[in-house]
Automatic annotation (TrEMBL):
Annotated protein name in UniProt: ornithine aminotransferase
Keywords: Amino-acid biosynthesis, Aminotransferase, Proline biosynthesis, Pyridoxal phosphate, Transferase
Pathway(s) of this molecule: Amino-acid biosynthesis; L-proline biosynthesis; L-glutamate 5-semialdehyde from L-ornithine: step 1/1
Cofactor(s) essential for the protein: pyridoxal 5'-phosphate
Length: 404
């Protein structure tokens, strides 16, 4: 095998030559990381202001999570669900206790969790609610992002995610996000579930109107419909509470979890919720070779332990208030809008200034890593271990980047 050069350009050339071109990353090649900071192959250090789209809520290489992974790797890695292992049940118990739910379905990726929730909701509709076979409908929101599988992109209205992947899976009804009257009008006797993000991430960290999800919850209760909350990006302390839906004092029937559930170490996802809903699955009807495997469960248990004390929720709430205060100072000075909750923000760049890509590159040059979405929006989601001083430094860099 040919020797590989160790500079940024050489690594990027390898990526471009041998990897499918399904991403457009910033030209940074990261080789080391710890806490809220990463270092590239040329020795440059950057503040991570994206956290792997919320997969790194606890920062890079959190010691407790690494210890859990190493300890489990030394004992047992995989059994498959053909056999029991000594981590699975404890993980399900701990996650259910943390989330106030009754049953846990373990998977690997966020998209798998959403696919699983869709299957469960449809099965529940036929076997419990009594919907006519093959007639079940799921109400979803415009601007949604739930993953990249064929079924999930079937109800995406983002042409980049959707176009040229058909024929598409039927059974989804799209309504405007935050429009309670539209949800009410879309419900029929065939409605199995309403599936939505409590805050839309990919769309630009869109927060719905106050009371929207309380209204959706009431409509679901009135019509025997499941509320499924996709908390894969918004959950696990990102917004200042365990779930973003908690800000509305609303409970879902099912939650999909992922990203931070694996601590930025391995993919771990789950559907958690009511036992009478998840209980429609019987042996052999759904599964995953790696879903609930011992290493995933060990790391997941360590993540649950980090969240049990509420420290990360409090950090996100307090530091998020500071972050949003600083970002709002830039409205009219290169930004036109700031949205979000906790340590999660979407900022819209003034069209007269720069594109999101240009601002991301200017931030990189100033030692901060962030990424654009939808051309003129930056998604900001630093690790929850970030400090107030580091936030100030990053926002100062954003101020410079907007006018560079």
């Amino acid at each position: 095998m040919a020797a590989t050069a160790h500079d940024t350009a050489s690594f990027i050339t390898l990526d471009e030559q041998w990897g499918a071109h399904n991403y457009h990353p910033l030209p940074v090649v990261i080789s080391e990381a710890e806490g809220a900071w990463v270092t590239d192959v040329d020795g440059n250090r950057y503040l991570d202001f994206l956290s792997g789209y919320s997969a790194l809520n606890f920062g890079h290489r959190h010691p407790a999570l690494l210890d859990a992974a190493r300890s489990q790797l030394d004992r047992l890695t995989l059994t498959s669900r053909a056999f029991h292992n000594d981590q699975f049940g404890a993980f399900c118990r701990d996650l259910a206790a943390l989330t106030g739910t009754e049953m846990v379905l373990t998977m690997n990726t966020g998209a798998e969790a959403v696919e699983s929730a869709i299957k469960v909701a449809r099965k529940w509709a036929y076997e419990v609610k009594g919907v006519e076979f093959d007639r079940a409908e799921i109400i979803v929101a415009a601007g949604n992002f739930h993953g990249r599988t064929t079924t999930i992109v079937s109800f995406s209205d983002d042409p980049v995610a959707h176009d040229n992947y058909g024929p598409f899976t039927p059974g989804f009804i799209t309504v405007p996000y935050g429009d309670l009257d539209a949800v009410r009008a879309a419900i029929t006797p065939n409605t199995a579930a309403v599936l939505m993000e409590p805050i839309q991430g990919e769309a630009g960290v869109i927060v719905p109107p106050a009371g929207f999800f309380a209204g959706v919850r009431a409509l679901c209760d009135e019509n025997d419909v499941l509320l499924v909350a996709d908390e894969i990006q918004s959950g696990l302390a990102r917004t200042g509470k365990l779930f973003a839906l908690d800000h509305e004092n609303v409970r879902a029937d099912l939650y999909t979890l992922g990203k931070a559930l694996g601590g930025g170490i391995i993919p771990v996802s789950a559907v958690v919720g009511r036992a009478d809903v998840l209980g429609v699955l019987k042996p052999g009807q759904h599964g995953s070779t790696f879903g609930g495997y011992p290493v995933a469960c060990a790391v997941g248990r360590a993540v649950v332990e980090l969240l049990e004390g509420g420290e990360f929720q409090e950090r996100s709430r307090d530091l998020g208030e500071h972050l949003h205060g600083r970002l709002n100072e830039l409205v009219g000075k290169g930004l036109v809008a700031v949205r979000g909750r906790g340590l999660w923000a979407g900022v819209d760049i003034d069209p007269a200034a720069k594109t999101g890509r240009e601002v991301s590159m200017a931030l990189r040059d100033r030692g901060v890593l962030c990424k654009e979405t939808h051309e003129r929006t930056l998604r900001i989601a630093p690790p929850l271990v970030i400090t107030r001083e580091e936030i100030d430094g990053a926002v100062d860099s954003l101020t410079e980047a907007l006018h560079a």
